Amino acid sequence: MTNGDDSAPAHATQRYAVFGQPIAHSLSPRIHAAFARQAGIELEYRAVEASLDGFVAELARFAEQGGRGANVTLPLKQHAARLCLDLSERARRADSVNTLVRHGQGWHGDSTDGAGLVRDITGRYGLDLRERRTLLVGAGGAARAVAFALIDAGIAELVIANRTSEHADALADAIGLPDRVRTRYWDDLGQWGAYDLVVNATSAGHGTQGLKLPRSLLTPRTLCYDLSYGKAAIGFLAWARSAGAERAIDGLGMLVEQAAESFALWHGQRPDTAAVYADLRAYVPGDAED
Ligand code: ATR
After folding, report:
1. Does the annotation count 231 as an active-site position?
2. Higher pLDDT, 3 or 165
3. pLDDT digits 0-9 by tens, 56-111
4. Helix, strand or coil for residue 177?
């Protein structure tokens, strides 16, 4: 992998950005500025507000300005996958792109979310994913982006439950491993026993209707993980703790790890994430037991 746009002058400021909507509160500029300081690299990394309709034009403008790489977040990840000249295998499988790398006249798309999740659980928290019977709650873009990585990390079984059962079935079909992946109906989810790992990949925490999950999903050894962080994760983490989970972890570490993975794709070196994570944790509501 090269470092981007060959046509940009060697001395030009390296330009990076994150695109999404809403984007004003994105932590990515702060994270990448910290990684860059650590690596001694001078770069610009800004947040660009882009709707589904406006994204193509914004991305083209960014490329004209010498943009070398970008992150893409909600609601653009699937859309971004359609705009790339080529995709990594993990982006193709997830049908999701959160990292763009400028290659010649086009974009190479990658998806680092799943790797970020696995690295957070196994690296930061030192927990083993292998053989965990896993419940994935939700079947939208976020769920799809992490499902393959969890399977690759060696979980025993993936059960997908979603409010709209057709979406869960579609995700299970896309994964295509009927021996290891199955779906359950939302309404009788509590009748099928407990799990070693429960991952909340719904966007329920961003809305007013919280998740209502049965306590019977958990044992005192269950790890609960919310892909969200901050206010959006509070409801699920509170439920997990009150229902007796061994650990309840928010997605702040995943955010930092997926960013580190993007940074490595752009700059060829992996930053140390511990200090950057600690810095963010100091002011993101501390829901994680770490
Ligand atoms: P994202 O990219 O964040 O995954 P998405 O693709 O719109 O966003 O998917 C949102 C997911 O959260 C879906 O699985 C959605 O369930 P539906 O498929 O039934 O829409 C789920 N979700 C959102 N709000 C929810 C709620 N209040 N209760 C349960 N599931 C919810």
Report:
1. no
2. 165
3. 999 999 999 999 999 999 999 999 999 999 999 999 999 999 999 999 999 999 99
4. coil
Cβ 7 under 6 angstroms from ligand 1: no
83 & 151 share domain: no
- Report long-range pairs for 6-9 (Cβ below 8 Å, ≥24 apart): 6/104, 7/66, 8/66, 8/68, 9/66
Q: Confirm or reject: Cβ of 164 under 6 Å from ligand 1.
A: yes
Assess if residue 278 is contained within a domain: no
pLDDT in tens, 233-289: 999 999 999 999 999 999 999 999 999 999 999 999 999 999 999 999 998 875 444
The pLDDT of residue 38 is above 80: yes
- Ligand 1 atom nearest 77 alpha carbon: 2
Q: State in Å: Cα 71 to ligand 1 middle.
A: 22
Whether the predicted pLDDT of 5 surpasses 70: no
Whether the CB of 138 sits within 6 Å of ligand 1: yes
The reply to whether 19 and 35 lie within a common domain is: yes
Least Cα distance to 182 among 151, 213, 225, 145 occurs for 151
96 lines ligand 1 (CB under 6 A): no
74 Cβ inside 6 Å of ligand 1: yes
At residue 51, the pLDDT reads 97
Q: Which of these is catalytic: 15, 32, 68, 77?
A: 77
Chain length of the chain: 290
Residue nearest to atom 12 of ligand 1 (CA): 202
Overall number of domains in the chain: 2
Q: Do 128 and 226 belong together in one domain? A: yes
Amino acid code (one letter) for 272:
D
Q: Which residue has the higher pLDDT, 237 or 8?
A: 237
**Same domain (yes/no): 135, 245:** yes
* Interatomic CA distance for residues 127 and 239, integer angstroms: 21
Residue 152 has pLDDT above 80, yes or no: yes
CB atoms within 10 A of CB 227: 26
Residue 260: give its domain's CATH number.
Answer: 3.40.50.10860
The DSSP code for 216 is G
Distance 140 CA to ligand 1 centre (A): 6
For residue 231, the domain's CATH number is 3.40.50.720
Domain assignment of residue 285, yes or no: no
Residue span of the structural domain in which 143 resides: 115-252
